[in-house]
Amino acid sequence: MNEPICLLEAVNLALARALDDDPEVILFGEDIGHNGGVFRATDGLAKRFGAHRVVDTPLAENMIAGTAVGMASQGIRAVVEIQFMGFIFPALEQLIAHAARLRHRTRGRLSCPMVLRAPYGGGIHAPEHHSESTEALLAHIPGLRVVIPSSPARAYGLLLGAIRCDDPVIFLEPKRIYRASRTLVEDSGAALPIDRCFTLREGADLSLISYGAMIPECLAAADNLAERGIDSEVIDVASLNPIDYDTLLASVSKTGRAVIVHEAPGKGGVGADISAVLNEQLWGQMRAPVMRVTGLDTVMPYYRNEQHYLPGVSDILDAVDKSLEAGRNEILQATGSG
Amino acid sequence: MREAVFKTEISLTRYLRADGKPLDELPGWSHEPEPLTSYYRWMVLARQFDQKAVALQRTGQLGTYPSSLGAEAIDVVTGHLMSHEDILVPYYRDHVLQMIRGTPMRDVLLYWGGDERGNAGVGMARDLPNAVPIATQTLHAAGVAASLKYRHQPHAVVCLCGDGATSKGDFAEALNLAGVWHLPLVMIVNNNQWAISVPRHMQCAAPTLAQKALAAGIPAEQVDGNDPIALHEVIGHALQRARAGKGPCLIEALSYRLSDHTTADDASRYRAPDQLKEAWQNDPLRRLRQYLVDLGYWDESRERQCLDEAQQQIQQAVEDYLATPPEPVESMFEYLYAELPEQLRTQIEMARVRGGGDL
User: Which residue, A223, A322, B57, B75, is most buried by CB atoms nearer than 10 A?
Assistant: First the structure.
């Protein structure tokens, strides 16, 4: 393909490539066949690969996950869609009690090479239950992998990596940026590693750590900071379980400052986990406390108020200022001036 | 105008009375010594194993164990009728069924003795291990059946669950999918009348559990779960249908849980002794033994020899189980992912220290 494509089209391109490469890849979910999915992520795939490989299911999320576990136990690469993350909860028992444990509890006799895709996050003025970011629930579970892309190229490469992985992977698609930008993505069939951070911008003064739809916000904040002469590093965590702490620790030990950004509530969130590890590992090297910019610890509001819930560039800049301020006070105290 | 648009009935198949006497004309094969004497031998083994497992638990040598007392006929007949290529999705009471499928008795003990390796070597490589969360395995079975269908493999999936499981959404969802995708799935409900302390009549107002499949467009029937001849006929037919691409079915096997729910349960708290006494009159072993004795295929000396052989086999398995040392600590991480994430390696050492030092 030589047209620039958006993240959503990159998902479609990766699914098509996986179906083409491996006859044991099957897609199923609600409305994904003839209709091509409510966001059109599977548009045209049923027609191209057949209704036996891109399959509409009855309406039952628990069933979709449990059936995927059964298929995957036999070596079929089941790639299933839950229409919105707000509807993933019936599937949690299957993901947590079975998908995550099948290899472990059979001592490797069986495995669970399934991918469960779900659009997630707010910012598109969707109805109630259509804007949640509950990725921390899944990232908490040993045995599950949780992967989130933040650009068309990473959506393509990470999804291929997820489908080829022999572990169960939850692939969460930030729907707010499904169509936000277009870039050229070569349909090379090359997967990206699904257990690595991506350093999107290198910098010496500060590490901005984020994922999903908050990545464009962080990049915009970094541009703004650059105008003020502040050189920020922007890291896309991409894999929430396991987390590539090597990259994060190397960055923060270099910059001494970290601001973690996600739209999910802060309490018990992935940012809290990253913050704890940075503190455990880098205490003494930090120039300021780790800051978090997150969604609020309340129910995701209906869309008329969602902009008051979701973090934006100015919230990130405020947190950066606090981080810079904290370091400055320390220096002032150390030199006895001020 | 008003007319009936859906009519059906649920049949119950039974050939032998509780005292082993035929109710009706029997199928030709049941006049032969095989497979019924083999069934009986396995049922004896199952019962002896069960007794031993409970004794091991009572003496602190096994964890909590769910007895299979009263389920012997269902498991033994199912196990014998399944082919090597059929796939089993069991529930947690199917000990002897897994053994017939090739799981060493020692592994069954290992599983209930708190060792994951009990699931590692299940006889048939594609069989699923025990599912403890109720009814969740019914969906796996649908998925396994979908994989057979997708690969055009003419085999059947057999899934078992209890009567309590039929109240769960998973069960309804699995049947629904099996119907609409026309999957090669044989769903067997071991209706042993009790879900821990909740009796059958408090589980569902429907007169049969079998009829739940009708709502999914799946044929369903009841069978006397203490009658090996009836089980053989009904399950054998269901397996042939499934293998021939004729779709799923549901079999409600009527049995009785002659034990507590598990060794952690005390059924005397909620079950009248008279009811249990009455249920023993339907004991599947007694029924088949009497039938075989009447035909001249079984007698006291065969019984004694059969018990002796079972005891020897069980004793050996128990010795093997008790002599198996715990797995090395790193096994806690070894199978978590296809490849262990680097950052988890330090936790292997933590686990070693936490356990009071290396094993």
Answer: B75
